[in-house]
Amino acid sequence: MTATLPEAAREMLDATEFANLATILPSGQPQLSVVWIEREGDEVLVSTTRGRRKTLNLEANPRATVLVYPRANP
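User: That's the sequence. What structure does it adopt?
Assistant: Structure tokens below.
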């Protein structure tokens, strides 16, 4: 199921901002990574490399949260 992003979220994702990506470790604990993000339609793209912990976490369990810190209004 794909969600439709509200316009305010689209604007924030289109700006050059850092974000925190929260994924779930195999132990069930949260794991946070500061990442570059961008938007393609209603999909949020995250910069990562195969084999990294966040990638392994997402492959095992696709539930995740992205928290964006807008520079102009954190």
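The chain is about 20% helix and 35% strand.
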